[in-house]
Write a structure and sequence with these properties.
alpha/beta; six-stranded mixed beta sheet; three-stranded antiparallel beta sheet; 9 helices; globular
């Protein structure tokens, strides 16, 4: 029998889409010598770089969260950790619900397989059932505009075709959590319009959206909450207008004194 505390905890957990506890991410940087001879006879030096440092973050179901910060602050690494592309060196990441990532759209494809075979492979990897893929495959192919190449091996696809197919598969899932980077719209102008419409549809619905962008107007219009990163740490977080105002004030003043 559940106690009152446990019931309350379960209710709270049901409302949480993403939770990070003490998340840190370390990379080891290898410094090469300028010449082949030096590389052979001299030991390479290495350096530890902490891209994320003790990140504690809670995102509720249905929240639209913008991640901002200067270049090198850890924004993309944070998205990669949440999406599962990379694992944290320390700490834990918990996600509740089906998540899709628009960070590495080509991940999960195999060069030797055809476009159609890759739809099944990629779809299964992001949590679609075979039955679901069967029911949506014609729409996926049509949306990506790759019908004439669908039986060709993936290595024959242009970069634009690969990105369109990757986005189309994601667009035809029914995700609970959507993770976006700055390159949200892909392909030519026509496809960018279609992909932007999908993103706006996710925003209007009760989807949890996590987006990294330098486009502060976009963040202002679409996000309920903003997380501000500096040097791998959460510098500040809170309501969108409040955080963006502080962010602009800091960097506007800094530019004025340079």
């Amino acid at each position: 029998m559940l106690t009152g505390f446990k019931k309350e905890r379960l209710i709270m957990e049901d409302k949480i889409a993403v939770e990070l506890k003490g998340v840190s991410k370390k990379y080891t940087l290898h410094h090469e010598k300028p010449t082949l001879v030096e590389n052979i006879f001299t030991a390479r030096s290495t350096e530890e770089f902490w891209a994320l440092k003790r990140i504690n973050l809670e995102i509720k179901r249905g929240e639209k969260v913008g991640i901002i910060g200067p270049n090198g602050s850890g924004k993309t690494t944070l998205l990669e950790v949440i999406s599962g592309i990379t694992t944290p060196t320390r700490g834990s990441v918990i996600t509740n619900g089906k998540k899709v990532s628009l960070i590495e759209l080509e991940a999960g494809f195999h060069a030797e397989l055809t476009g159609q075979e890759n739809i099944y492979l990629n779809g299964l990897l992001i949590g679609m059932s075979k039955k679901e893929i069967n029911s949506k495959i014609k729409k996926i192919i049509s949306f990506a505009d790759v019908r004439q190449f669908i039986d060709a091996p993936f290595y024959a696809y242009s970069e634009g075709m690969k990105l369109r197919l990757g986005f189309s598969i994601v667009a035809h899932t029914n995700p609970d959590i959507v993770i976006l980077d700055e390159n949200m719209a892909v392909g030519d102008t026509s496809f960018k319009v279609k992909s932007h419409e999908i993103i706006l549809d996710w925003i209007k619905k009760r989807k949890t959206i996590i987006v990294v962008s330098h486009l502060l107007d976009f963040i202002s219009e679409t996000c309920d909450k903003v997380v501000w990163l500096e040097e791998g740490k959460i510098f500040d977080q809170g309501k969108t207008k409040t955080i963006i105002k502080k962010y602009l004030h800091k960097y506007y003043n800094r530019r004025g004194h340079e």
